[in-house]
Specification:
By secondary structure, the protein is an alpha/beta fold. It has two domains: about 5-230, Spore Coat Polysaccharide Biosynthesis Protein SpsA, Chain A, CATH 3.90.550.10; about 230-290. Helices cover about 50% and strands about 15% of the residues. The protein has ten helices and seven strands. The chain has helices at about 20-35, 50-60, 70-80, 100-105, 125-145, 160-165, 175-185, 210-230, 230-255, 260-290; strands at about 5-15, 40-45, 60-65, 85-90, 115-120, 155-160, 190-195. The chain has a seven-stranded mixed beta sheet with strand order 3-2-1-4-6-5-7, with helices on both faces. Strand 1 (about 5-15), helix 1 and strand 2 form a beta-alpha-beta unit. Helix 5 packs parallel to helix 8 (about 210-230), helix 7 (about 175-185) packs parallel to helix 8 and helix 9 (about 230-255) packs antiparallel against helix 10. The protein is elongated, with a radius of gyration of 23 Å.
């Protein structure tokens, strides 16, 4: 893979980002022009009411317009579907990501399926909530994938389009789109690299909703587990019930001298959960088979 033979699509989802869209696009265009990659820039205007799409069009980039706000995940998906490039670059339109570093992502795409810009600090809104929640979710994601994850849901990344399109059917409508894609790549042992990047406070109003988006992050983790690694949930849960059943049975039999039906119920619950896990794993394998 050389600079001359790769076509890159830079996708920028935007919702009411009139205050930042022009400076971000200037940085993207300058970076790509200096890199000698052939490229296109696609701004997905997700129902903006502040002229974001018009400002982007005036800068000569392609603009896809949603008639209403559908969610940043939908914007990313529609951007991928409209893209002509073999390599997809994702970034945001709020002055948070160092778009001048896009060539750094692309330099590694001859060896990796995805390159993620790992943020060196948290500069988002509601940091008192985001930091602990993201750390919990990151550790859970590492458990699922058995891989070290430096930044699960960074919106600054490069990816191979032919692989990304395989997972579009499981991506959510909201902010967890990028996290889902990270888990999908790592769960199927794709080659993923992380590079450190700066991260700045956003320009304009954030669309992050603390309660709804935190719940959404947790749900996307569970959904992704069930899609890729169901045994990661069912085996520990089955083991827990079986262990409790055995301990309670021994205690009731040898200490209380009264073996109860509840021990059988707990043990059977563990067995049923284990069987369901095996069936779920079989379904996943059959679904992925050619």
């Amino acid at each position: 893979m050389t600079n001359e033979d790769v076509y890159v699509s830079v996708i920028v989802p935007a919702y009411n980002e009139a205050a930042a869209i022009e400076s971000d696009l200037q940085a993207i265009i300058a970076a790509m022009d200096s890199s000698r990659y052939t490229y296109e820039v696609i701004v997905v205007d997700d129902g903006s009411t502040d002229g974001t799409g018009d400002l982007a069009e005036a800068m000569g980039v392609t603009v896809l317009r949603h008639t209403e706000n559908k969610g940043v995940g939908v914007a990313r998906t529609n951007g991928v579907r409209a893209a002509s490039g073999e390599i997809i670059v994702m970034t945001d339109a709020d002055n948070t990501y160092p778009n001048e570093d896009i060539p750094r992502l692309l330099e590694l795409m001859n060896r990796y399926d995805m390159v993620i810009g790992a943020r060196t600090r948290e500069a988002g809104t509601v940091p008192w909530l985001r930091k602990p929640v993201k750390e919990i979710i990151r550790r859970l994601a590492e458990y699922i994938t058995s891989e070290h994850i430096e930044d699960l849901n960074s919106g600054f990344r490069a990816m191979r389009k032919d692989i990304v399109t395989r997972y579009l059917n499981i991506t959510p409508e909201g902010h967890s789109w990028v996290g889902t894609m990270t888990l999908a790549f790592l769960s199927e042992k794709r080659d993923v690299a992380f590079i450190p990047i700066d991260y700045w406070p956003r320009t304009g109003r954030s669309t992050f909703h603390p309660i709804a988006d935190t719940y959404g992050y947790l749900m996307f983790i569970m959904k992704t587990i069930m899609y890729f690694k169901p045994l990661k949930v069912f085996v520990p849960l089955s083991g827990l019930f079986l262990t409790l059943g055995v301990i309670k049975g021994l205690y009731d039999s040898f200490i209380l001298h009264d073996f109860k039906e509840s021990e059988i119920v707990i043990l059977l619950t563990g067995v049923i959960i284990g069987v369901l896990g095996l069936l779920a794993d079989l379904v996943v394998k059959l679904h992925k088979s050619p």
